[in-house]
Every structure is written in structure tokens, then in C-alpha cells.
Amino acid sequence: MESNTNTWAFINAPTSGITSTTSSTAALVKKSSIRQQDNETPKSFIVGQKLKVSRSYNAIKPLPAMPQQQVSTQNASALQMNSHKPPRRVGLGVIGCGRIGQVHSKSISEMHNAELIMVSDPFEDSGRKVAATYHTEFSPDWKTLVHDPRIQGVVIGSPTPFHAEQILECCKAGKDIFCEKPISTNLDVIDECLKAVEKAGVRLLVGFQRRFDSNFKHIHDEIAKGAIGQVRMFQIVSRDPAPPPQEYLEKSGGIFLDMASHDFDMARFVTGAEIEEVYVCGAAFDPEARGAKDLDSVIMTLKMSNGAFGTIQNSRRCAMGYDQRIEVFGSQGIISGNNKTPDTVVVSNSKGVTSGLPYSFFMDRYEGAYTGAMRAFAEVIHDNKAPLVTGADGRAPIVAAMAASISARENRPVKLSEIEAKLLVHN
User: Fold this and answer.
1) Which spans in 41-147 are helix H?
2) 287, 286, 288, 283: which is closest to 299 by C-alpha?
3) Phi, psi of 131, rounded to the nearest 5 degrees
4) What is the largest CA-CA distance in the chain?
5) In whole angstroms, what is the distance from residue 18 CA to residue 419 CA?
């Protein structure tokens, strides 16, 4: 889980565990009472009104128009070249003004090829504050945002139970979609959403931000270029600084969905293959996980469709900070990515050699990755590109998480095909 103990109020967590039981989308997207932020809004802000920075310009009188017959072909060509037309800016809207919604709003406001048209949140205090901060419009009704003709792409940063309903509404409106993970904790609902996306002809980018991190992206790109030859083994380490409260864990869907889903995605990303089998060894050492009947420390062995295999280590507690490392072994070499730190200072003296600890908060560690993900979404629309993280990429870690859950419970390797077969029988 990419969070820490001090920020649980801002986390949009699933309200149910992993399940493949058929249920209506409406039931899964019932109104949530999660309050995302309690910040006061400047009293001068008016709901629905766009705030603009006041600027003063000196009026410039245009030159007298040149008679048409006096403009030579050469001059006309020069005039055409000098009249530079600014690039089209993509209109984006953000649903959800909690922690992640604020991050995405900030990223959009700083882009040259995108404009933040509107933000939406049922809690007007937090919504108005974000709108005022980034000089945009606010609506408490997310459907108003989705159907606004100025908006080409919708960023869904609301709590998980709302995701499916909002994706389906975006499909009806013909809007491209960025959705935070997970799309849903229910495979039937995920499949319904993916079918709707395909039928509507819109594009969906799922927010696995680690793919846009400079370390992990570089590793992926080097492997794709053949830098280490055939991928044979990998090790992924992901440990949080401190465990969340028991109340959070009880609603999180468990360690495999809440935390390991990023690592399942990373295994697919760096190997270029699908996960075929998962085997889990784990325990609950801390009272938070024990109280929630969850695990807080796991090692998973993964077998991939291309013959490669590797391990994922997850822990809810790590004394040194946010531990995010990876190593991939190939037939012609090894590539690895180490922890990032706030600075790269190394002190060497008679007492030893010391350096700083890793980041202690996932938002700091992956700040650049979140910006990269939002930039990629804007480019999908602006440049008419295919998404770098598709709906299928969003679905695969959910299947892996379900297999891992069974493996931990039954102490056996579980093939992902077993999960898919059960889904087919059920339907």
C-alpha cells in the first residue's frame, strides 16, 4: 500500500474484500461516506465560477489592413508562417478532491498541452479549495463534469466503490478515462467496464504510477532493448514504513490487493510476460494485521508465461523507510534499481560511511511518477495515442491477488487459470 500512518484520512480504499461474485454495478458503487479532506475554502470563492488571475495588457492598435491585391504571394506565405497557432490544449476534469485528486489537479495545471476545466467532489469544502488553488471550476455533481462538452478526458480519483459507475458514465459520454487502481475488486464488474470501454471506442489508462517512475521505466526500457538478454529471474522488494490502523486494513481488501497489486503489475512490466502461478508464504507479526485477520509480511514466488520466475517481498513495516527495490537477472547481465532518497549526500569519516534514509512517504517517493502518469494520459488524447497502461493491465493484478489469497489460505501454488476457470463456470 502506498501510504503511511499519518495520511489514512486521505486514502480511497475499497470497502470490500476481493470477490468474483456477480453483483450489480449499482450495488458496488453505492454512495460512500468517506470524507476526503476537511479544509476551509476562501469565502470569496463561488461554486461553479472559474477563478482567473487578473492580468493587465496594454491595448495595441492593429496596423491598417493591406489591400488584398497588394499582397504578393511571397508576402502572403511569410504572413502565414509568422502566424503561429498555439497547440491544442486538452480539456481534463478530475473527480475526487482527496489526496490523489489534488496531486492530479496540480500536475494538470502545470502542463502545456492540457487544461484543468473542472474538479468535482461531494464534499464542497475540499472541492472548492482545490478549485480555488488551481483556478478552475467546481461542481459537487460528478456527472456534470463528465458531460461537460469542454472536457475530453476524465480523471477518476474517487473512492474505489465509485469507479465502475463513473467509468460506465464516461463511456456513455464518449470521454477518455484515467482511473486509479483498482477499477473494481470484482472481476465481473471489471469485465463489464472493459466491454463498455471497447464498445464506446474510448480509451482507458489505469493508474499504476510505478510504470512511470524513472527507475522502473529505465529498467523496463533496458530489458526491452536486450541489455541483459533473456529474462530468467527477478526480485521485487516493497516495504512500507509503518502499518496502517486495523480499521483501514479491514476495508483494504487485504495485503495482496491493497499492497502487492503494484508488484504484480511490476512483474508483468519488467518481464513482458503474464503471471501464470503464485505461491505465498506469509505471516501477521503486528497487532493491526492480526486484528484484521490479514497478513503483514509475505514472500511470493511467481512463475511467468515466458519461463521466467521470481519473488516479491512485501512488508507493512520497515524501520528504515519506504523500501522500493528491484533486480532482474538475464542470460547476459543483471539490472537493478535501488531506493531513492531525498538527497545523495554521503558522509565518510573515521566513524564510517553514512548516507540518508529512503523516502518515508509514497507520495514523495513517486511524485515524479504521478506527474508522468498524468502527462501520459494527456498525450493519449492530445496525440491520439494508445494508453501505456490498459484496462487489461488493470485487471491482471486482481486475478493474481485472488490467486495469492487462495495460496496463502490453502498453502499451495495456485495457477491464475484456476481463477479464470471458476469465473467462466460461475457465469
Assistant:
1) 73-82, 99-109, 124-133, 142-146
2) 283
3) -60, -45
4) 87
5) 12
CB contact at 8 A, 91 and 378? no
**Residues 6+ positions from 71 with CB-CB distance below 8 Å:** 79
Question: DSSP string spanning 253-285?
Answer: --HHHHTTHHHHHHHHHHHTS-EEEEEEEEE--
Can you say whether residue 180 is alpha, beta or left, with left for phi > 0 and alpha for psi between -120 and 50 degrees? beta
pLDDT at 21 over 60: no
Please answer whether residues 350 and 362 qualify as being in contact, where contact means their C-beta atoms are separated by less than 8 angstroms: no
Which residues, in sequence order, are bridge partners of residue 207?
none
How many Cβ atoms are within 10 Å of 39's Cβ, its own excluded? 15
CA–CA distance, 140 with 258 (Å, rounded to integer)? 28
> DSSP 3-state assignment of 203?
coil
Cα–Cα distance, 187 to 295 (Å, whole number): 23
* Cβ partners under 8 Å of residue 157, min gap 6: 12, 94, 95, 96, 98, 100, 101, 104, 180
Tell me the CA distances in angstroms from 246 to 290, 299, 316, one per residue in order: 8, 21, 12
With cut-offs at 50, 70 and 90, classify the pLDDT of residue 313. Answer: very high
Res. 97: pLDDT tops 50: yes
pTM summary value: 0.80
Whether 283 and 315 have beta carbons less than 8 Å apart is answered as no
pLDDT digits (tens, 9 = 90+) for 266-310: 999 999 999 999 999 999 999 999 999 999 999 999 999 999 999
Asked if 300 contacts 260 with a C-beta cutoff of 8 angstroms, the reply is yes
Cell of 263: 508488484
Strand order in the sheet with 231-239: 333-337, 323-330, 231-239, 309-315, 297-304, 275-283, 414-415
Q: Give CA separation, 316 vs 17, 99, 364, in Å.
A: 18, 21, 18
**What whole-number distance in Å separates Cα of residue 301 and Cα of residue 311?**
5
How far is 260 from 277, CA to CA, in rounded Å?
Answer: 15
Query: Which residue reads 485472488 in cell numbers?
Result: 402
* CA–CA dist 197, 190 (Å, integer): 11
